């Protein structure tokens, strides 16, 4: 297990990041599952347990609630995140900019796209982010990276077919927000890693 913190962005991106000003401390966490799982995925449960009493909402996407297997297209998933994050923030009597958003794989990607499109957030937690489909390294899912101006924590396995450490290093400089990476032994769903993942998130939240 190892960390990389504070990746450098271009001078222009650093200027944009400075213009965003000081951010509000996170007051709650909204987590989403990957495409093949639901809100009760073991990693999401472990994170909620370890971060208690920080309020945590584990959120399913519409397709899962409807019993469908195919994930929602991005516009549907993003609209759901915008709606549910506003509801959650109102329930907790906090501003939407005090929510940390994120999740595993597809779920984390949808959260990052929502934030890039303007959804307020205190930060992003992206677990096993799918940088590209397995075996298709040229089909990158990074076009929205320059519009992510919040702190981001990436946690992935160092043998993940959705993106290697070298591939991430090649593209994360495009994110103007401060980027922290945590690499674990394993693939897309690192085994027996729930505790260190939750601990890393807890530590990262204290730095926001």
Indicate the low-confidence ranges by residue numbers.
5-22
Characterize the largest beta sheet: strand count, sense, and whether it forms a barrel.
7 strands, mixed
The count of β-strands is: 7
CATH topology label: Rossmann fold
- How are the strands of the biggest sheet laid out side by side? 1-7-6-5-4-2-3
Give the SSE order as H and E letters. EHEHEHHEHEEHEH
* CATH architecture descriptor name: 3-Layer(aba) Sandwich
Description:
This protein is α/β, with parallel strands linked by helices and 208 residues long. It has a single domain (2-206), classed as Rossmann fold, CATH 3.40.50.1820. The chain has helices at residues 11-19, 42-51, 62-65, 74-92, 106-116, 165-171, 194-206; strands spanning 2-5, 28-32, 56-58, 99-104, 123-127, 152-157, 179-184. The protein has a seven-stranded mixed sheet, sandwiched between helices. Mean pLDDT is 90; it is low at 5-22.
SSE order and pairing:
Layout (H helix, E strand, L loop, with lengths): L1 E4 L5 H9 L8 E5 L9 H10 L4 E3 L3 H4 L8 H19 L6 E6 L1 H11 L6 E5 L24 E6 L7 H7 L7 E6 L9 H13 L2
Parallel strand pairs: 2-3, 2-4, 4-5, 5-6, 6-7
Antiparallel strand pairs: 1-7
Helix pairs in contact: 2-7, 4-5
Structure characteristics:
alpha/beta; seven-stranded mixed β-sheet; 7 helices; 7 strands; 35% helix; 17% strand
């Amino acid at each position: 297990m190892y960390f990389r913190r504070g990746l450098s962005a271009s001078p222009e991106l650093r200027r944009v990041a400075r213009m965003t000003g000081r951010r509000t401390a996170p007051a709650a966490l909204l987590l989403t599952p990957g495409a093949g799982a639901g809100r009760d995925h073991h990693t999401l449960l472990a994170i909620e347990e370890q971060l208690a009493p920080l309020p945590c909402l584990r959120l399913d996407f519409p397709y899962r609630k409807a019993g469908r297997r195919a994930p929602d297209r991005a516009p549907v998933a993003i609209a759901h995140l915008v709606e549910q994050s506003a509801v959650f923030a109102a329930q907790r009597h906090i501003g939407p900019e005090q929510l940390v958003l994120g999740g595993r794989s597809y779920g984390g990607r949808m959260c990052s796209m929502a934030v890039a499109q303007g959804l307020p957030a205190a930060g992003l937690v992206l677990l096993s982010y799918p940088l590209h489909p397995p075996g298709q390294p040229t089909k990158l899912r990074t076009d929205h990276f320059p519009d992510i101006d919040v702190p981001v924590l990436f946690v992935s396995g160092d043998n993940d077919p959705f993106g290697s450490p070298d591939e991430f290093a090649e593209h994360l400089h495009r994110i103007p927000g401060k980027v922290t990476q945590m690499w674990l032994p394993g693939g897309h769903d690192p085994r027996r890693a729930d505790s260190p993942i939750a601990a890393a998130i807890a530590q990262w939240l204290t730095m926001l």
